[in-house]
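Subject line: Sequence and fold of a protein, written as structure tokens
Area: Proteins and the way their chains fold up in space.
Start of record: The labelled sequence and token lines come straight after this line.
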Amino acid sequence: MSASDKTNFDEMHAPDGSVRNAYDSYQEWLSGQDEGWMRRKNFEAESFFRRTGITFNVYGEDDAEERLIPFDMVPRIITGAEWRRLSKGIEQRVRALNAFMHDLYHRQEIIRAGRLPERLFRHNKAWLPQMVGFTPPGGVYTHITGIDLVRTGPDDFLVLEDNARTPSGVSYMLENRETMMAMFPELFSKVKVCPVSDYPRRLAKSLAACAPPNVDGPPTIAVLTPGIFNSAYYEHAFLADQMGAELVEGSDLRVVNGKVQMRTTMGFKPVDVLYRRVDDEYLDPLTFNPDSMLGVPGIMDVYRAGGITIANAPGTGVCDDKAIYSFMPEIVEFYTGEKALLPNVETWRCADPDSLKYVLENLNELVVKEVHGSGGYGMLIGPTATKKDLQQFRAKLKSNPDNYIAQPTLSLSTCPIFTRKGLAPRHVDLRPFVLSSPEGVDITPGGLTRVALKRGSLVVNSSQGGGTKDSWVLED
């Protein structure tokens, strides 16, 4: 989108050019730095990421085995007061999502009450009949959740989407902070920023608290990865290493004596908690896709018998559905008895004839998304679309309206990035990471800020040319 930056909320600068309170100390430090030195630091950051191997894959591209995650060294800064308000809304939403999952696989009270149409999940591939009547250990479905937020004004944060299946990106949050602290140690002496480096310890603690009740001693935690060719393999290996957990593939695991066990040099050893980064479809070839080579035959039988915890629980992908998302205000109110503290982006459900009519009449002004889409794929940004794109999407909407939702083209807030010509505003979003266990909800201060590096672009996904920033929450 090529909307003027002046129409967007600038998180660092007020309209009169003055620096907002959150950035006061940072700006004071920045104004004392030599521009040539900053350029060298920018190059140093890129070299650091390349040495560390912070890369990702984009499927379907021959040259994409090792693509560098673009990193911008100007932090995105949130005040402590802003974060406290955000945290309350995030916690409320995650608790509602977990309660919703339990209800959807049990009595379905929200459907009986007429607050959610049954059609939304009855033919939804993410809804698993194998989970009906089963409650995971500790009653937790969404152990790790990523809530994508956008900002449109000083106090206006909106939820763009929920990620409750296998949210990714936390390793970039951690490496961004480590890179910034290595490059600018004196800056962190000047500006008091809430730490994020203890996330792996908190993740391990949260997962351990969700272990099955019959485990003797500290539970054994393992991270299940599809393997080295997966786009997020770096993150899988990183988290396993940082947690002190085992990194396993499906071929390393088998069901032995009613337990999921991993092969070791000393024989097979039981796994109590499996942090899986494998989609539901490939988790158990005996239950789901029989051709899967990534999962563990029989793991769902062990799971339903209470012999292992799978995080996140199978079937949580329903929460990622963008049609379900459009009902989140009702879902939050139904399970918490409170109005949602964090509003949704206005959403038109194309399955509704009146909404479809509106979307078709205003296609060039809207963002259209597939209800099961992710990563910025399968979407249309009306204001930047070609006539051919609009024509193709019009045909898709008419032939399969249930598969799409539409939203207004938002005036996303901007944060500055470092360019050859100095600081320049770019659009950003924020993905806080939330841990849930029987002990409560734990939100890491900040999260992953994704930034659209192209001027005027609204697409922040790394697979679509976006980058990342360090996210600072200021200590009071």
Notes: The two ends are 37 Å apart (CA to CA). Residues 345 and 371 are 14 Å apart (CA to CA).
